[in-house]
Amino acid sequence: MAIALDRLTMAASVRAERRGRAQRVALSDERIRRLTVVGAVAAVALVVAARLLGVGGFPSGVSFSFAGPVNSWVASLQSSLNLQAVSNVFVRGVLDPLLHVLRASPWWLVIGVAAALAWILASWRTAATVTAALVAIGLLGVWDDSLDTLSQVIAAALVTVVIGVAIGILTSRSDTLEKVVRPVLDAMQTMPAFVYLIPVIGLFGIGRTPAAIAAVIYALPLVIRLTDSGIRQVPAVTKEAAISSGASPRQLLWKVELPLARPAIMLGVNQGIMMVLAMVIIGALVGGGALGYDVLVGLSQNQFGLGIAAGATIVCLGIVLDRITQAAARAEGRTHTHH
Amino acid sequence: MRLAALAAVLVLLVAACGGAKSTSGGGVGGGSGGGSGSGGGKTVRLAVNSWVGSQADVAVACWLIQNKLSSKCDQVTIDEVPTWPAMGQNRLEGVLEVWGHEDLYAQYVTKAKKVVDGGKLGATGHIGWYVPTYVMQQHPELATWQGLKTNWKLFQTAESGGQGQLLDGSPSYVTEDAALAKNLGLNLKVIYAGSEAAQITAIRKAYAAKKPLLFYWYTPQWLNSQLQFSEVKLPSRTEGCDATAGKKPDKTNCAYPTYPLYKAFSAEFASGNSKAYQLLKSFQLTNKQQDDVAALIADKGMKPDAAAAQWAQQNQSVWQPWISS
Question: Looking at beta carbons, which residues of chain B come within 8 Å of A55?
């Protein structure tokens, strides 16, 4: 479904472009009108006929059941492939150290570092916003859970950005690759996460790893798409100038394309982080715990207060991460133009 | 040409929308479907809550109502809490499996009298700590919680770090596990799977590999008819050992209470005293019977109606008395 909608909107925009470029051979008004009337009558007749015959909907004999083969395939995959060790490395080597640093720091140090970052990168006003958001989190009484969520978001966002920018660069090089990757990205953005997360638990075990995987899968397409389109929009003239002055493909990428695509890529980074944060609720359904679990408990046990506190905290974390990454993007942009 | 196609698409859409019939059928909010509302009508609308056991109860009841009383029966998917106002407003005739919910009972049965107590379901809800039976056989000392004092290392995972892991599941169920572990002085860390589906996947994974796993679990539950679990007994309940006696939940230091599961019906449906009501009033399933039906649905992937039909045909002696009475 998503693929169909994506193609329709893309096709519509491509067509609009084409129409601007080339003069179309115009059909005579009379012909168009006649065709419209005939088409309309035919469509109404078809719908009425279908209704009379009682054949609405997709013919049920044609559809087939996926469930059996898919289940057995997943089961065999789970028994042959055990990625628990990979998951353990991620938990012990990345998440736990990060969480330990955050938890071991006193609350004022965490707030101080975040505020200082915002101040250096942007302004005292941004620093004040960040401070207020973090103090609010403390007052809402979910400080420890917030740090847990924050550590998961940072780790997942890093993975997302590294993989996303790399794939975005690759697809910007090749139209064929871009066409192959696009339906995969459609699926990643729209497939309900819970559908693929249960098999993921079978492979990686329960906990923060499947939660991070869900977040990465959800946020990755946007980063890839923005990187891809950012690089594609670098003017051909600029690239030709670089090549004719002897730039190697590597130099072209690092000195010309990436710097010029930076605004798009930084937007991807910023939005990627926000999307990772938005997935903490889904992550909690597979063992992510922390704020997402608090929201789930609030929802399912009628504990409105807990749900609201956790929900508001997620918003506050979002504000902090958004302001700091936006400020970073702008700061980098500034230093770049100074050169 | 393109314009014509576009117009055709639009006309098709309009025609299809205009002609579409209302599909709100058994919806609780809709009401425009076959439901007749008050007790005088024929359709019985029963609440299906989120767990498979609830689905199993209702599937069996509806199968009997449809096939043995020739009345209509709708299975309405709805959450636990909204089930009660829906019964109070006659948008649902009843619910067959209620776990606790003393507050809602007081509000709708005792005070407003819009809902009536429908008697016991027969099954008893029990929550506790469990391990797969193969773990219990190797470590018989795990029969009580004291065995966890020395054996916590068995359950250590990357997620639980320097402690043993206690795997909790659905956030819908009350858990005092973190407080229990602390108050009993056990070196256990509660890991929240966050959903029953995730917890079951983790249990199956451990079970297939014959690995140790300690988890929060309950009965009736369909998985109990597929895999063998043994309970790690928590300290027995004493006066005021948990929140039921006004104690703060974080001071809990004893086993969970048992829940005699019960049925509830809308007052209007009950006063109508139809044949369907009489059947539902007598309707009772044991934990084992419910697990059998639920396993057909959840594990064998049968449609609830087909599972109910298969079970009912094999267990005629169980339900025959409900109908003749």
Answer: none
Nearest to A198 among B1, B19, B197 (CB): B197
pLDDT above 90 for A160: yes
What sign does the dihedral A112-A113-A114-A115 (CA atoms) show? positive
A248's CB contacts (< 8 A; 6+ apart) are none
> What tokens were used for A334?
């500034």
Query: How many helices and strands in chain B, by DSSP H and E?
Result: 13, 9
Under 8 Å between Cβ of B165 and B157: yes
- Residue holding tokens 């690092």? A254
**Region A115-121: what's the mean pLDDT?**
90
Residues B91/B45, Cβ–Cβ less than 8 Å:
yes
The DSSP result for B212-269, as a single string, is ---EEEEES-GGGGTS-EEEEBPPPP-TTSSGGGT--GGG--SPPPEEEEEEEEEHHH
Backbone phi, psi, residue B233, to 5°: -70, 130
In a 3-state reduction of DSSP, which class is residue B41?
A: coil
pLDDT of B237-267, one tens digit each? 887 787 766 667 778 888 988 889 999 999 9
- Rounded Cα–Cα distance for residues B182 and B193 (Å): 20
Q: How many CB pairs under 8 A join A and B?
A: 111
C-alpha–C-alpha distance, residues A124 and A135, integer Å: 16
Q: Which strand (E) or helix (H) includes residue B104?
A: helix B102-105
**Under 8 Å CB-to-CB from B167, ≥6 apart: which residues?**
A206, B191, B193, B199, B202, B203, B213, B214, B215, B216
Token pair, residue B301, equals 């992937």
**CB contact burial A36-52 (16+ within 10 A = b; e otherwise):** beebbeebbeebeeeee
Question: Which secondary-structure segment (H or E) carries B188?
Answer: strand B188-192
- As a whole number of angstroms, the longest Cα–Cα distance in chain B is 82
Quote the distance between the C-alpha of residue B94 and its chain's center. Answer: 15
- Among the listed residues B146, B140, B134, B145, the one whose alpha carbon sits nearest the alpha carbon of residue B212: B134
CA dihedral of residues B12, B16, B18, B19 (deg, nearest 10): 130
For residue B167, give the 3-state DSSP assignment.
strand
β-partners of residue B288 are: none
Answer whether B192 touches A (CB < 8 Å).
yes
Nearest residue on chain A to B168, alpha-carbon basis: A287
Spell out which residues of chain A touch residue B301, defining contact as CB-CB under 8 Å. Answer: 67
Residue A197 neighbours by CB distance under 10 Å: 25
Question: What residue of B is the nearest CA neighbor of A195?
Answer: B197
CA distance, residue A188 to nearest chain B CA (Å): 20
Q: Is the pLDDT of residue A48 over 90?
A: no
Among residues A290, A93, A288, A89, the alpha carbon closest in space to that of A208 is found at A288
ipTM exceeding 0.85, yes/no: no
| CA A292 distance to own-chain centroid | 18
